[in-house]
Amino acid sequence: MSDVNKLLEVNLSVFVIDMIDKPLSLSGEVLEKFIPPKRGIYLYNSIKPLLNLEDNKYFFENGNTVITLDDVKNCKGYILDINGNVVLSDSRIKRIEKLLLNEPNIPVIAIDFIINSIENFILTSTINYSKILFHDNINLLKDYREFLDKDNKLVYENQKDLLDFVDSGCSFLLTDIYNELNDFINGDIYNIYEFERKGNLLIINKKHDYRIIQYYKQLEIIKSLKNELPNS
Predict the structure, then answer these.
(1) Model's pTM, two decimal places?
(2) Which structural domain range is residue 84 located in?
């Protein structure tokens, strides 16, 4: 393993946020602005669907398509993805049957919105060495034209106006998190920050200063070039 890869594997510090209860303090007026979650089969208190029926297809061993929660609960054998890989077995389904839902029991799109905002905050507070793309939270909101007042007039002028409203509604929650993240960054704006979503956790890993990584990359290039030179 190269020195660069060794450095990249090191986590200098880790910041972990359990997202499960973050949106519980949001008002209903804010929560109603988010798009519906993906159609699928969910586990209780899970952010991501166990089976994403909106974007993917799943099959029983006999070739029949998995469509409903009852289909899953009545499975005999295995559920496969479109490539034939085993996704679920009947033995596992029996173990988790009481936790299976045909829609999430928590506001998962609101959680995605909060996670995106946190990751965007890190990217704007540090040197974005990896050139990670910023999340566009507008994609998580319903069409602004769906919201009318009692006189049947538009409440919001455009989609950006709707986004500003939701941002404002989440600000009290995010401000506390941003203050904790500022302490976590602690002025280390040149360090590499990696994001990992594991279950209901958002994990932020602080890596070495990217300038150190660049230095060792240059050393490896120089070493490689020297090895390619013919012996004098």
Answers:
(1) 0.85
(2) 42-101
